[in-house]
């Protein structure tokens, strides 16, 4: 994009140089100092060649060169007062460089945006005012307005174009990364996961030490599947400014004895609420592992109800009497009140723990979306 804009500046400079040359050659004998107009044309030609070559290379587009470009344009505009007749100048005749002087303003706009463009436009406009003296004609005023518009609007358009180009490149990189992740996920699914599944099933069938190996393989398979699922949901979460997809935090909690079920679409929540729900669910699952028994299974269900989001954690373990939580809190064991109930209360949510001996436990976690 930037290179294309610099080519536009160079093309504009060549076209306006040709126009200025036509006028100078035609009117040279009518100047107060014949031949001086041709000298100005020679300077314009040489400087055009210098800037066209220099602006092709990014390293040469330095502030000092662009400033010199503006200075040359100003000098040649003011030189009209020394070369042409005062009566013609007062009558509104154009300066010797005519529209060529605006090429330096466009260079400022491309290099630094609208503020640089306006600064260059003001400098060239000041040279126009100096060349005219105290008499500011309508044509001069209109020319000044056009130069300022070219500098400001031109710089603004350049900035918009560069932002658009940056956005397109960022989207292209993200899509390429997503495609690569999908390719890796397919390869993992077709190789690593299948091997882990085979080891898990064969080990359990053989029993003994092989059963332990099978159990470990099953855990690694579940963890890897959860990682792939979270990675697939992650880019969608990143698109929501200031929010997280709850699924990316809950899916990794799954395991051999833990089943996680989530909606197919993103469950977006403010970051603090999403982390509170996921943290409370993790604490509930930790209690399952510690207290529900070695064979207990657990199920995590994420429900998006629109205005509210609910996460349920249920197990088929040994359960406990309702009074147990009260007694635990009285004894100073504050796991459930702090890690589950307190965590949800801190973000304006609520938690409910229901259990009975032999019937397992269910923990309901609920927060408002806003």
Explain what you see.
There is one protein chain. The protein folds into two domains: 2-168; 242-370, 2-Layer Sandwich (Heat Shock Protein 90). It is 66% helix and 11% strand. The protein contains 13 helices and seven strands. It has helices spanning 2-27, 36-54, 63-83, 86-90, 102-112, 114-132, 138-190, 192-206, 209-238, 246-250, 271-291, 323-330, 335-345; strands at residues 243-245, 258-261, 268-270, 298-304, 308-315, 350-355, 361-368. A hairpin with a 5-residue loop joins β6 (350-355) and β7 (361-368). α7 (138-190) packs antiparallel against α9 (209-238). The radius of gyration is 37 Å and the shape is elongated. The mean pLDDT is 83.
Strand-helix topology:
Elements: H1 2-27, H2 36-54, H3 63-83, H4 86-90, H5 102-112, H6 114-132, H7 138-190, H8 192-206, H9 209-238, E1 243-245, H10 246-250, E2 258-261, E3 268-270, H11 271-291, E4 298-304, E5 308-315, H12 323-330, H13 335-345, E6 350-355, E7 361-368
Parallel strand pairs: 2-4
Antiparallel strand pairs: 1-3, 4-5, 5-7, 6-7
Helix pairs in contact: 1-2, 1-5, 2-3, 3-5, 3-6, 5-6, 5-7, 6-7, 7-9, 8-9, 11-13
What is the structure about, briefly put?
The chain is of the alpha+beta class.
């Amino acid at each position: 994009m930037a290179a294309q804009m610099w080519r536009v500046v160079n093309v504009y400079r060549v076209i306006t140089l040709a126009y200025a040359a036509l006028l100078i050659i035609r009117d040279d004998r009518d100047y107060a100092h014949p031949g001086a107009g041709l000298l100005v044309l020679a300077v314009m030609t040489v400087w055009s060649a210098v800037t066209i070559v220099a602006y092709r290379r990014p390293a040469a587009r330095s502030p000092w060169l662009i400033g010199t470009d503006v200075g040359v344009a100003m000098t040649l505009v003011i030189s009209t007062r020394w070369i042409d007749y005062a009566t013609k100048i007062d009558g509104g005749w154009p300066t010797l460089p005519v529209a060529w002087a605006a090429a330096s303003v466009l260079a400022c706009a491309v290099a630094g945006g609208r503020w640089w463009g306006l600064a260059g436009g003001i400098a060239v406009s000041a040279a126009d005012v100096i060349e005219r003296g105290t008499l500011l004609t309508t044509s001069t005023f209109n020319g000044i307005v056009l130069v300022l518009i070219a500098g400001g609007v031109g710089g603004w358009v350049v900035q918009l174009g560069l932002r658009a180009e940056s956005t397109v490149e960022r989207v292209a990189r993200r899509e390429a990364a997503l495609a690569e992740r999908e390719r890796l996920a397919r390869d993992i699914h077709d190789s690593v996961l299948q091997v882990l599944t085979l080891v898990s099933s064969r080990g359990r069938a053989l029993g003994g030490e092989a059963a332990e190996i099978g159990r470990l393989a099953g855990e690694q398979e579940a963890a890897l599947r959860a990682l792939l699922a979270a990675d697939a949901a992650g880019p969608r979460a990143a698109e929501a400014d200031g929010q997280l997809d709850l699924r990316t935090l809950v899916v990794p909690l799954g395991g051999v004895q833990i089943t996680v079920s989530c909606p197919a679409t993103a469950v977006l929540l403010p970051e603090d609420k999403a982390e509170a729900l996921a943290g409370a669910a993790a604490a509930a699952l930790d209690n399952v592992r510690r207290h529900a028994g070695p064979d207990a299974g657990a199920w995590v269900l994420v429900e998006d109800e629109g205005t509210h989001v609910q996460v349920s954690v249920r197990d088929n373990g040994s359960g406990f009497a309702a009074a147990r939580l009260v007694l635990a809190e009285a004894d100073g064991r504050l796991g459930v009140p702090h890690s589950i109930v307190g965590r949800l209360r801190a973000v304006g949510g609520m938690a409910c723990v229901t259990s009975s001996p032999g019937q397992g436990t269910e923990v309901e976690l609920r927060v408002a979306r806003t």
